[in-house]
Amino acid sequence: MNHQPVKYILTDIEGTTTAVSFVYDTLFPFFREHISRLSALQTQEEVIQAVTETKLILAQESGLANPTWEEILSTWYNWSVEDKKITPLKTVQGILWADGYKAGLIKGHIYADVPRAFESWTTQGLALGIFSSGSVAAQKLLFGYSESGDLTRYLSHYFDTKTGGKRETDTYRKIAQELTFEPNEILFLSDICEELEAADQAGFQTIQLVRPGTESKWQRTVSNFDEITL
């Protein structure tokens, strides 16, 4: 199959560079265990913004116009349990995860083939970036405090839900514009077919990562980064 030469590689995290179990067994429980610590951070700009966004969502979805701080915390807790892909939740999760990473309580799980590929692709002159539903801050923490050391030196851009939904074609068009590459010069890696389909419709090249627990459903699939040919 002939492809335009790849100049930029954009990768998902969960199920692609990182085991899904790391998110569910380490990050989410850590957030819920330490969520009360946010009470001391209510005056932080990021927390204030997250509260404002949460109030808007609650007003729209449940008619709760003026929730208390305890109701806000409970909402974030429940959203975490439900794995909601909601920006204010990702913001406050990232705040608490930052403390965990910096204190050495959390190390970001990265599959062993990923650092090898990052090094190889960078040596070949390719640029690399991340697109995940987790906040940009959380992405930088995972790669900055990974089990393989600081991998942020390989990454030029980070994108999260503030850019748009991962299953929306327009989001990938926006990413291509920001990267200043033609869509067909960008390779997107993910384990989720709906995300790959949206990227494909935007003109991206796409490959599905079929990690343990993932079912092969895309036209181009690999089981790890070592198998990717450009």
Defining traits:
about 230 residues, alpha/beta, Rossmann fold, Transcription Termination Factor Rho, Rna-binding Domain, Chain A, Domain 1, six-stranded parallel sheet, 8 helices, globular
What does it look like?
The chain is 45% helix and 11% strand. By secondary structure, the chain is an alpha/beta fold. The chain folds into 2 domains: 8-18 and 108-227, HAD superfamily/HAD-like (Rossmann fold, 3-Layer(aba) Sandwich); 24-102, Transcription Termination Factor Rho, Rna-binding Domain, Chain A, Domain 1 (Orthogonal Bundle), CATH 1.10.720. Helix 4 packs parallel to helix 6 (136-144). The mean pLDDT is 95.
CATH hierarchy class name of the largest domain: Alpha Beta
Q: For this entry, what is the oligomeric state of its chains?
A: single chain
Work out the radius of gyration: 18 Å
The biggest beta sheet is recorded as: 6 strands, parallel
* CATH fold-type name of the largest domain: Rossmann fold
Q: Round the mean pLDDT to the nearest integer and report it.
A: 95
N- to C-terminal distance = 11 Å
Q: How many E strands?
A: 6
